[in-house]
Design a protein that fits this description.
This protein has four helices and five strands; from the N terminus they run E-H-H-H-E-E-E-E-H. By secondary structure, it is α+β, with helices and mostly antiparallel strands. A five-stranded antiparallel beta sheet has the order 1-3-4-5-2. A hairpin with a 4-residue loop joins strand 3 and strand 4.
Length: 161
């Protein structure tokens, strides 16, 4: 028999959050320009097709950035009881399995794999497993590590500085 925890946590193992994403050719070009990625696969659809892709493909940094931003957005929202949370990315590992094609629907998701209290950081080290999928299969897999804090820890962390 397992013990039931009543501890207030900023996340729980098994929690998931998702986002549906579709990137237009204009969005792909604009993002690639914004990060100075001049690879023609992200700017010239005819070049991308000639290179064997179905069309213009997104820069890996584009989808990776959206995946990482999802964690910040999700964990900046308060808990159901109104308790504020904050998150800080500690590291992400991203593996690309296929090109993200313009105007293709993708489902991006994260699942909490581990939540470990870290008193010296006034919060919890939280490990996440993520994936971006389209009808063609898995396009990206990711693993992330973030620091989560709850309302009281936010104050304690400021005092500790």
């Amino acid at each position: 028999m397992s013990a039931v925890t009543t501890e207030r946590l900023p996340a729980r193992v098994g929690d998931t959050f998702t986002k549906r994403l579709r990137l237009s050719e204009a969005e792909i070009r604009a993002f690639a320009r914004s990060v100075d990625d001049l690879n023609p696969l992200h700017h010239d659809a005819a070049f991308a097709v000639a290179a064997g892709y179905p069309g213009l493909i997104a820069s890996g940094t584009h989808v990776g950035s959206v995946m990482m931003a999802m964690t910040a957005t999700h964990y900046s929202a308060p808990l159901a009881d109104g308790t504020r949370r904050s998150s800080l990315g500690l590291g992400f590992h991203i593996t690309f399995h296929g090109g993200v094609v313009a105007d293709e629907d993708m489902d991006l998701d994260w699942t909490v794999a581990e939540v470990v209290r870290k008193d010296s950081l006034h919060g919890w080290i939280t490990r996440l497993d993520g994936e971006a999928r389209s009808a063609r299969g898995v396009l990206l897999s990711a693993r992330g590590k973030i620091l989560l804090r709850l309302g009281d820890e936010l104050v304690a962390a400021r005092r500790a500085r």
